[in-house]
Specification:
Blueprint (H helix, E strand, L loop, with lengths): L2 E5 L8 H14 L4 E6 L4 H6 L2 H9 L5 H6 L1 E2 L9 E2 L2 H4 L13 E3 L6 H5 L7 H7 L7 E6 L5 H9 L2 E6 L3 H20 L6 E7 L9 H17 L13 H8 L11 H17 L6
Parallel strand pairs: 1-6, 1-7, 2-5, 2-6, 7-8
Antiparallel strand pairs: 3-4
Helix pairs in contact: 7-8, 9-10
Bound molecules: adenosine-5'-triphosphate and magnesium ion.
Length: about 280
Protein backbone atom coordinates (compact mmCIF):
# COMPACT_ATOMS: atom_id res chain seq x y z
CA UNK A 1 0.00 0.00 0.00
CA UNK A 2 1.33 3.41 -0.98
CA UNK A 3 2.22 5.96 1.67
CA UNK A 4 0.46 9.18 0.67
CA UNK A 5 2.02 12.50 1.67
CA UNK A 6 0.55 15.94 0.96
CA UNK A 7 2.61 19.12 0.97
CA UNK A 8 0.45 21.80 2.53
CA UNK A 9 0.82 25.33 3.77
CA UNK A 10 -1.85 28.03 3.53
CA UNK A 11 0.95 30.49 2.84
CA UNK A 12 1.87 30.78 -0.83
CA UNK A 13 5.31 30.65 -2.40
CA UNK A 14 7.00 28.72 0.43
CA UNK A 15 8.47 25.98 -1.75
CA UNK A 16 5.71 23.33 -1.73
CA UNK A 17 5.91 22.57 -5.45
CA UNK A 18 9.70 22.71 -5.60
CA UNK A 19 9.93 20.25 -2.74
CA UNK A 20 7.15 18.02 -4.09
CA UNK A 21 8.96 17.70 -7.43
CA UNK A 22 12.34 17.02 -5.81
CA UNK A 23 10.95 14.51 -3.30
CA UNK A 24 9.18 12.68 -6.12
CA UNK A 25 12.42 12.61 -8.14
CA UNK A 26 14.41 11.46 -5.10
CA UNK A 27 11.98 8.62 -4.37
CA UNK A 28 11.97 7.64 -8.03
CA UNK A 29 15.79 7.59 -8.11
CA UNK A 30 15.84 5.34 -5.06
CA UNK A 31 13.65 2.90 -6.95
CA UNK A 32 10.39 3.51 -5.08
CA UNK A 33 7.33 3.23 -7.31
CA UNK A 34 6.22 6.85 -7.11
CA UNK A 35 3.19 8.82 -8.22
CA UNK A 36 3.16 12.63 -8.12
CA UNK A 37 -0.23 14.34 -8.03
CA UNK A 38 -0.75 17.98 -8.93
CA UNK A 39 -3.68 19.25 -6.87
CA UNK A 40 -3.20 22.93 -7.69
CA UNK A 41 -4.99 24.72 -10.55
CA UNK A 42 -1.71 26.64 -11.11
CA UNK A 43 -0.35 23.30 -12.41
CA UNK A 44 3.23 24.17 -11.44
CA UNK A 45 4.11 20.58 -10.53
CA UNK A 46 2.92 19.38 -13.94
CA UNK A 47 5.04 22.08 -15.58
CA UNK A 48 8.08 21.09 -13.47
CA UNK A 49 7.89 17.37 -14.24
CA UNK A 50 6.84 17.50 -17.92
CA UNK A 51 8.57 19.59 -20.56
CA UNK A 52 6.65 22.80 -21.35
CA UNK A 53 5.97 21.34 -24.82
CA UNK A 54 4.69 18.04 -23.40
CA UNK A 55 2.42 19.88 -21.01
CA UNK A 56 1.06 22.23 -23.70
CA UNK A 57 0.45 19.25 -25.98
CA UNK A 58 -1.38 17.42 -23.20
CA UNK A 59 -3.77 20.34 -22.82
CA UNK A 60 -4.10 20.95 -26.55
CA UNK A 61 -5.10 17.32 -27.10
CA UNK A 62 -7.67 17.60 -24.29
CA UNK A 63 -6.06 14.70 -22.44
CA UNK A 64 -7.53 14.01 -18.98
CA UNK A 65 -6.17 15.61 -15.83
CA UNK A 66 -6.96 15.66 -12.11
CA UNK A 67 -10.10 17.63 -13.07
CA UNK A 68 -11.66 14.34 -14.20
CA UNK A 69 -11.11 12.81 -10.76
CA UNK A 70 -13.41 15.46 -9.32
CA UNK A 71 -15.86 15.38 -12.28
CA UNK A 72 -15.82 11.54 -12.21
CA UNK A 73 -16.18 11.15 -15.94
CA UNK A 74 -14.20 11.75 -19.10
CA UNK A 75 -15.71 14.41 -21.32
CA UNK A 76 -16.64 13.52 -24.86
CA UNK A 77 -13.64 14.18 -27.12
CA UNK A 78 -15.30 14.21 -30.51
CA UNK A 79 -18.43 13.82 -32.53
CA UNK A 80 -18.78 10.05 -31.98
CA UNK A 81 -17.74 9.71 -28.36
CA UNK A 82 -19.85 10.29 -25.31
CA UNK A 83 -18.86 10.98 -21.69
CA UNK A 84 -17.72 7.78 -19.94
CA UNK A 85 -16.80 6.72 -16.39
CA UNK A 86 -13.48 7.48 -14.86
CA UNK A 87 -10.44 5.21 -14.82
CA UNK A 88 -7.60 6.77 -12.82
CA UNK A 89 -5.03 4.81 -14.84
CA UNK A 90 -6.02 6.73 -17.98
CA UNK A 91 -5.34 10.00 -16.20
CA UNK A 92 -1.87 8.94 -15.09
CA UNK A 93 1.05 9.91 -17.30
CA UNK A 94 3.62 7.12 -17.11
CA UNK A 95 7.31 7.98 -16.86
CA UNK A 96 6.46 11.65 -16.74
CA UNK A 97 9.83 12.97 -15.61
CA UNK A 98 11.78 13.83 -18.74
CA UNK A 99 15.28 13.17 -17.49
CA UNK A 100 16.51 9.91 -18.94
CA UNK A 101 16.24 7.58 -15.92
CA UNK A 102 12.76 8.60 -14.82
CA UNK A 103 10.04 6.09 -13.96
CA UNK A 104 7.95 8.67 -12.19
CA UNK A 105 4.20 8.78 -12.81
CA UNK A 106 2.17 11.98 -12.73
CA UNK A 107 -1.45 13.00 -12.51
CA UNK A 108 -1.31 16.49 -14.01
CA UNK A 109 -3.50 19.48 -13.29
CA UNK A 110 -4.92 22.36 -15.27
CA UNK A 111 -6.52 25.71 -14.56
CA UNK A 112 -10.03 24.30 -14.94
CA UNK A 113 -9.52 22.51 -11.61
CA UNK A 114 -10.68 25.77 -10.04
CA UNK A 115 -14.17 24.97 -11.39
CA UNK A 116 -14.30 22.25 -8.72
CA UNK A 117 -14.07 25.00 -6.14
CA UNK A 118 -17.25 26.61 -7.42
CA UNK A 119 -19.31 23.46 -7.09
CA UNK A 120 -17.62 21.43 -4.35
CA UNK A 121 -20.53 19.54 -2.82
CA UNK A 122 -19.79 15.88 -2.16
CA UNK A 123 -16.40 15.90 -3.89
CA UNK A 124 -14.06 15.73 -0.87
CA UNK A 125 -13.53 11.95 -0.98
CA UNK A 126 -13.23 11.48 -4.73
CA UNK A 127 -9.44 11.71 -4.84
CA UNK A 128 -9.06 9.23 -1.95
CA UNK A 129 -11.47 6.85 -3.63
CA UNK A 130 -9.73 7.05 -7.00
CA UNK A 131 -6.33 6.57 -5.37
CA UNK A 132 -7.47 3.50 -3.46
CA UNK A 133 -7.78 1.73 -6.83
CA UNK A 134 -4.05 2.10 -7.54
CA UNK A 135 -2.67 2.11 -3.97
CA UNK A 136 -1.01 -1.28 -4.48
CA UNK A 137 0.86 -0.09 -7.55
CA UNK A 138 2.87 2.57 -5.73
CA UNK A 139 5.06 2.82 -2.65
CA UNK A 140 4.86 6.60 -2.39
CA UNK A 141 2.31 9.16 -3.56
CA UNK A 142 3.25 12.85 -3.28
CA UNK A 143 0.46 15.43 -3.52
CA UNK A 144 1.26 19.07 -4.21
CA UNK A 145 -1.46 21.37 -2.84
CA UNK A 146 -2.62 24.90 -3.56
CA UNK A 147 -1.93 27.61 -0.98
CA UNK A 148 -5.55 28.31 -0.05
CA UNK A 149 -7.93 26.24 2.04
CA UNK A 150 -10.74 24.74 -0.02
CA UNK A 151 -12.41 21.46 -0.96
CA UNK A 152 -9.05 20.54 -2.49
CA UNK A 153 -7.42 20.72 0.95
CA UNK A 154 -10.07 18.37 2.33
CA UNK A 155 -9.54 16.07 -0.65
CA UNK A 156 -5.82 15.99 0.19
CA UNK A 157 -6.52 15.26 3.87
CA UNK A 158 -8.84 12.36 2.98
CA UNK A 159 -6.29 10.91 0.56
CA UNK A 160 -3.25 11.29 2.83
CA UNK A 161 -1.55 9.47 5.65
CA UNK A 162 0.92 12.32 6.28
CA UNK A 163 1.23 16.07 5.81
CA UNK A 164 4.58 17.71 5.17
CA UNK A 165 4.65 21.44 5.90
CA UNK A 166 7.22 23.51 4.05
CA UNK A 167 7.83 26.81 5.84
CA UNK A 168 9.77 29.80 4.60
CA UNK A 169 11.42 31.37 7.66
CA UNK A 170 9.89 34.85 7.40
CA UNK A 171 7.43 36.86 9.44
CA UNK A 172 4.34 35.98 7.37
CA UNK A 173 5.08 32.26 7.57
CA UNK A 174 4.49 32.41 11.30
CA UNK A 175 1.04 33.88 10.78
CA UNK A 176 -0.02 31.12 8.38
CA UNK A 177 0.79 28.21 10.67
CA UNK A 178 -2.02 28.61 13.23
CA UNK A 179 -4.49 28.64 10.31
CA UNK A 180 -3.13 25.33 9.12
CA UNK A 181 -3.21 23.92 12.66
CA UNK A 182 -6.87 24.90 12.97
CA UNK A 183 -7.75 23.43 9.59
CA UNK A 184 -6.14 20.08 10.49
CA UNK A 185 -7.74 20.03 13.94
CA UNK A 186 -11.18 20.66 12.45
CA UNK A 187 -10.65 17.87 9.94
CA UNK A 188 -9.48 15.45 12.65
CA UNK A 189 -12.42 16.37 14.85
CA UNK A 190 -14.93 15.61 12.10
CA UNK A 191 -13.11 12.54 10.76
CA UNK A 192 -11.67 10.79 13.78
CA UNK A 193 -11.61 7.45 11.92
CA UNK A 194 -9.08 8.79 9.39
CA UNK A 195 -5.43 8.49 10.38
CA UNK A 196 -3.61 11.70 9.45
CA UNK A 197 -0.27 12.81 10.93
CA UNK A 198 2.06 15.74 10.43
CA UNK A 199 5.36 14.19 9.38
CA UNK A 200 7.07 17.50 10.07
CA UNK A 201 7.90 21.09 9.28
CA UNK A 202 10.70 21.63 6.82
CA UNK A 203 12.31 25.06 6.64
CA UNK A 204 12.85 26.11 3.04
CA UNK A 205 15.31 28.98 2.80
CA UNK A 206 14.04 30.12 -0.54
CA UNK A 207 15.23 33.70 -0.17
CA UNK A 208 18.74 34.82 0.69
CA UNK A 209 17.79 36.85 3.74
CA UNK A 210 15.93 33.96 5.38
CA UNK A 211 19.29 32.89 6.83
CA UNK A 212 19.79 36.29 8.54
CA UNK A 213 18.29 37.73 11.78
CA UNK A 214 14.74 37.85 10.34
CA UNK A 215 14.99 34.16 9.46
CA UNK A 216 16.32 33.26 12.90
CA UNK A 217 13.52 35.14 14.66
CA UNK A 218 10.93 33.47 12.46
CA UNK A 219 12.44 30.02 13.08
CA UNK A 220 12.08 30.63 16.83
CA UNK A 221 8.41 31.56 16.41
CA UNK A 222 7.66 28.59 14.17
CA UNK A 223 9.38 26.23 16.63
CA UNK A 224 7.22 27.63 19.44
CA UNK A 225 4.04 27.08 17.38
CA UNK A 226 5.20 23.57 16.39
CA UNK A 227 5.87 22.56 19.97
CA UNK A 228 2.31 23.60 20.94
CA UNK A 229 1.02 20.95 18.53
CA UNK A 230 3.80 18.41 19.03
CA UNK A 231 4.95 18.78 15.40
CA UNK A 232 8.35 17.47 14.38
CA UNK A 233 10.86 19.88 12.82
CA UNK A 234 13.23 18.39 10.26
CA UNK A 235 16.85 18.77 11.33
CA UNK A 236 18.27 19.68 7.93
CA UNK A 237 16.65 22.69 6.24
CA UNK A 238 16.44 23.08 2.49
CA UNK A 239 18.95 25.83 1.85
CA UNK A 240 18.73 28.70 -0.61
CA UNK A 241 20.03 27.76 -4.03
CA UNK A 242 19.21 28.89 -7.54
CA UNK A 243 19.63 25.22 -8.51
CA UNK A 244 16.09 24.50 -7.30
CA UNK A 245 14.57 26.82 -9.91
CA UNK A 246 17.02 25.49 -12.49
CA UNK A 247 16.02 21.91 -11.65
CA UNK A 248 12.38 22.83 -12.40
CA UNK A 249 13.40 24.45 -15.69
CA UNK A 250 15.51 21.43 -16.68
CA UNK A 251 12.97 18.93 -15.32
CA UNK A 252 15.68 17.10 -13.44
CA UNK A 253 16.36 15.71 -9.99
CA UNK A 254 18.52 18.23 -8.09
CA UNK A 255 21.67 16.16 -8.38
CA UNK A 256 21.30 15.83 -12.17
CA UNK A 257 20.86 19.59 -12.62
CA UNK A 258 23.62 21.44 -14.42
CA UNK A 259 26.30 23.07 -12.25
CA UNK A 260 24.61 22.15 -8.97
CA UNK A 261 26.94 22.44 -5.97
CA UNK A 262 27.78 19.27 -4.13
CA UNK A 263 26.87 20.79 -0.73
CA UNK A 264 23.37 21.69 -1.98
CA UNK A 265 22.59 18.12 -3.02
CA UNK A 266 24.33 16.66 0.05
CA UNK A 267 22.10 18.73 2.34
CA UNK A 268 18.97 17.96 0.38
CA UNK A 269 19.78 14.24 0.49
CA UNK A 270 20.12 14.43 4.27
CA UNK A 271 16.61 15.87 4.46
CA UNK A 272 15.34 13.16 2.07
CA UNK A 273 16.74 10.42 4.35
CA UNK A 274 15.06 11.99 7.37
CA UNK A 275 11.81 12.28 5.41
CA UNK A 276 11.81 8.59 4.46
CA UNK A 277 12.52 7.64 8.06
CA UNK A 278 9.63 9.81 9.30
CA UNK A 279 7.18 8.14 6.93
CA UNK A 280 8.69 4.68 7.58
CA UNK A 281 9.50 4.05 3.94
CA UNK A 282 12.53 1.88 3.28
CA UNK A 283 13.79 -0.57 0.73
CA UNK A 284 13.34 -4.03 2.20
N1 LIG B 1 15.45 26.17 -1.73
C1 LIG B 1 15.18 27.14 -2.60
N2 LIG B 1 16.13 28.03 -2.96
C2 LIG B 1 15.87 29.04 -3.81
N3 LIG B 1 14.68 29.25 -4.38
C3 LIG B 1 13.68 28.40 -4.07
C4 LIG B 1 13.86 27.30 -3.18
N4 LIG B 1 12.68 26.64 -3.08
C5 LIG B 1 11.81 27.28 -3.87
N5 LIG B 1 12.39 28.33 -4.47
C6 LIG B 1 11.76 29.30 -5.37
O1 LIG B 1 10.73 29.96 -4.64
C7 LIG B 1 9.61 30.22 -5.49
C8 LIG B 1 8.35 29.58 -4.89
O2 LIG B 1 8.52 28.18 -4.87
P1 LIG B 1 7.32 27.18 -5.14
O3 LIG B 1 6.62 27.51 -6.40
O4 LIG B 1 7.86 25.81 -4.97
O5 LIG B 1 6.39 27.56 -3.91
P2 LIG B 1 4.88 27.07 -3.63
O6 LIG B 1 4.74 27.02 -2.15
O7 LIG B 1 4.59 25.85 -4.38
O8 LIG B 1 4.05 28.29 -4.24
P3 LIG B 1 2.43 28.32 -4.42
O9 LIG B 1 1.89 28.60 -3.04
O10 LIG B 1 2.22 29.47 -5.36
O11 LIG B 1 2.00 27.02 -4.95
C9 LIG B 1 9.97 29.65 -6.85
O12 LIG B 1 10.47 30.71 -7.63
C10 LIG B 1 11.07 28.63 -6.55
O13 LIG B 1 11.97 28.47 -7.62
MG1 LIG C 1 2.99 25.46 -5.72
Amino acid sequence: MAVVVSLINMKGGVGKTTLAAQLAHAADKKGFRTLAIDLDPQANLSQSLLTPEQYAKHLRNKKPTIVQIFDQYFPSTGEYTSPRPLDIKEITIKKAGYWSGSKLDLIPSRLELSRTLKNPTGKERRLAKALSRVADEYELVIIDCAPTESILTDAAYFASRYILIPVKPEFLATIGLPLLARSIQEFEFENSDHELDICGIIFVHSSKYSEGPEGRQSIKEVKAEASKHGWHIFQTPVRYSASYAKAAREGTPLENTSNVHYYVTAEFNKFVEEFFTRISLSKS
